[in-house]
Design a protein that fits this description.
about 80 residues, mainly alpha, about 0% strand
């Protein structure tokens, strides 16, 4: 719910493409779903269980985190 509130709706807290100022864009909605999905599918299982991941899985998770931070960093360049 937090990610959907921050990135979604008619007046999101964070607009990923500030130069366009269209909070209803499909890109904004897509990233909202990706951030929400990461919380549900990546963060929550690790937070609620003592899981062990291998090196390949760790690299995949780092790639996802890198994409998210790259997108958030790009907000300041607009």
């Amino acid at each position: 719910p937090l990610m959907r509130r921050v990135f979604g709706g008619q007046s999101p807290s964070l607009i990923l493409e500030p130069e366009h100022r269209d909070p209803t864009s499909t890109e904004q909605e897509g990233y909202m779903h990706m951030f929400a999905g990461a919380m549900m599918g990546i963060r929550n299982p690790k937070a609620h269980a003592n899981l062990t991941i291998d090196k390949v899985r760790a690299l995949h998770l780092l790639a996802v985190a890198s994409l998210f931070f790259y997108k958030l960093d790009a907000m300041g360049e607009g």
